[in-house]
Design goal:
heterodimer, A: Methyltransferase, Methionine Synthase (B12-binding Domains), Chain A, domain 1, Rossmann fold, 10% strand, B: 403 residues, alpha/beta, seven-stranded parallel β-sheet, four-stranded antiparallel β-sheet, 14 helices
Amino acid sequence: MSRNQELTEGIIRGDRENVVRLVREDLEAGHGPVLILNDGLIPGMEKLGDQFGRGEVFIPELMAAAKAMNAAMEILRPLLEASGVEPLGKVVMGTVKGDMHDIGKNLVCMLLRGAGFEVIDLGVNTSAEQFIEALENSGARILGMSALLTTTMNRMGAIIETIRRAPFGEEVRIMVGGAPLDEDFAAKIGANGYAKDAPLAVDRFKELHAALQP
Amino acid sequence: MANTESGPGNREKNFILSKKASLTPRDRVRMAMAHKEPDRVPFDFGSTSVTSIAGMAYEKLKRHLGSDSQTRIMAKQGQVAHIDEEILRKFGIDTRPLDPGVPDNWTDIEINPLTYQDEWGVQWQRPEESNSYFLLKGHFEGDENGTLEALHRFQWPDPKDPGRYRGLRDRARKLHEETDYAVVFSPRATFWQDAARIRGFGDFFSDLVTNKKYIHALLDRILEIRLEITERMMAETRGFIDVVLVSDDLGTQSGPMISMQMFEEFVKPRQKIYFEAMKKGDPDAKILYHCDGCIDVFLPHLIEIGIDGLNPVQVSARNMGDTKRLKREFGRDLFFWGGVDTGRVIPFGTRDEIFEEVKRRIDDLAPGGGYVLNFVHNIQDEVPPENVCAMFEAAMEYGWYGG
C-alpha cells in the first residue's frame, strides 16, 4: 500500500493517531501539504461519504473519520496558509433562531472542513442579523442553515428574505437542511439548495461553490 | 391563562360518540395490545412526555376549547404539557400518565438563567424567547474525558434516593382502582441516549469506532443505575400499570444511526437485560418502545428480545411511511402506538388532509387490533388547535370496529 493509500485507509477507519503520525512523517520526508491533503486525506472522506450514501457505514464511522481529518487539518492548515494555498471555499453555517439542535449541522461542518472548506460555524439559535454579519466579515458567499423543528423551519423563509435584502444578499448561495425539510420546501422559501443527509450536503455545497467561481 | 375569545362550550363539539362504546378505556387498550379488535381504536394523548403537546400549542388548544386551566409542564425539554382531565375526556382519550417521583437529594443546578444541569451532568439551555430546553453539552465531552478514570470520578445519580419512589405505589393504585383508564408508566428507562448526551454526540459516536472499551463501561454504568431505578419503581407499580415506556433513539430521518453490527455489540445485549427486568417486574405490563426515525431493520431484533409495542412509528422517516407494510411484516408481534404524521399533515395539512391521514393510518394499522392512535411525537408549538381537534374528530369518526 502506498503512503497515500495508507492515509486514505486511516481516514476511513477513523484512526486518528495513525493519520496524525503519517501526516507528520510525510511532512518530515518533504511531501507537500497540498498533496497530502488532496491525494491522501480527501479521497478517504469522499469514499466514506459514498459508503454512507449507500448505507454501508453510519454516523459513528463518519464522525470518527471527520475527527481524524480535523486532527490532520490542524497540522496542515498553518502550512497551507503559509504557502498561500486558499481553502476550497468559505461557508457560514448555523442552526436558525429558536432552534438549539446541532448534531446534524455539526456533522456537516466537520465533513465540509474535511472536504477542504473553511467553515465559520455560528452554532445554534442564529438570527438573520448574525448570519449577515458573519457573511460580511468573512467575505463568504455560501451559507448553510439548519432547522430541526417544524416551528423553526417556518422561520427560515423570513431569514432568507432578510439576508437577500443585505447589500450582497442576492449573491449569497443558501443551503438548507434538517429533518422536517424537503426539496419542495427549500425551493418555496427561496433557498438555492437542499440535501437530505450530511455527505449529500457536502456535494451540494461543492456544486454551489463551483457555480460561484468566475 | 385568561379566556377572552370564547366562552366555555362555545365551540364544544360532541367528540365522544359514547353510544357505541362497549368497553372501558383500559379494556380497550388492553385488547388492542393483545392483538384483538376492541369496540374502537384506543387513543392516547399525553400519557407520556413523547405523546403529548408543547406548552404554547397547548395554551392555544385550551383557549380554542374554552378551557382556562393553568398549564402544568411534565418535561422541561420541549416544554411538554400535562393534558387536563377535561380535555382528555373531550377527546375520548383512553390512557392516563403515571410519572415517577423526583430525587430528594438532587436539585437541577442553575448555571445561568437560561441554562441548567441535570443529575447526569448534562447541561440544557433554552433560547431567550422560549421555555423549551435543548441539549447544550454533556459532562464528559472532550478527549480528556473519554477515559475510565473520568467515569470513576463522576458523582453518579443515586438509584436508592427515596424521593424517586415516594408515593408512587399510591398514585399507581389510585389510577388503577379509581379510574378505568389504561395506566402508562414512564420510569425514564433509557441508557443509549443518556450515554450520547453525557459524552456529547460527536465524541460518543466517534468513540463507538475508536474508544469501544470506554463506551462499554459508560453504557454499563448507566444501565446499572437505570435498571436499579426501574426495578425498584416497578416493584411499587406492579399490578397497577398497563404499559411501561422505554425509550432509546436508534434512527435518523434517512437511516439507522448505527450499523447492525454495532447494534448487536452495544445495544441489543443491554436492552435484553432491560426488557427482561421489566417483564419480571410486572408480567402484565406491556413494554412500549419509543424510538424515532428509520429503524425497520432493528425491529425483528427488538421483537426477539421482548418489546411489545412501537412508538411513535415516525412515518416521515425512510422505510417507516408504508404503515401497511409495517403492519404486514411486524404486526403479528408488535402493536403500533402513534403513526399520525406530524412532519407535515398535522402542522400544515387541511382538515380534509388530516381526516385522510387518520383514516389511512387506521386502515393500515388497526385491522385485527394492535393499534393505539396518537400522533408522531409531541405536537409542536405552531400547530393550530383546529388541527389537533380535527385529528381526534377524525379518529372518533373512523376508529370504530365493525362498521
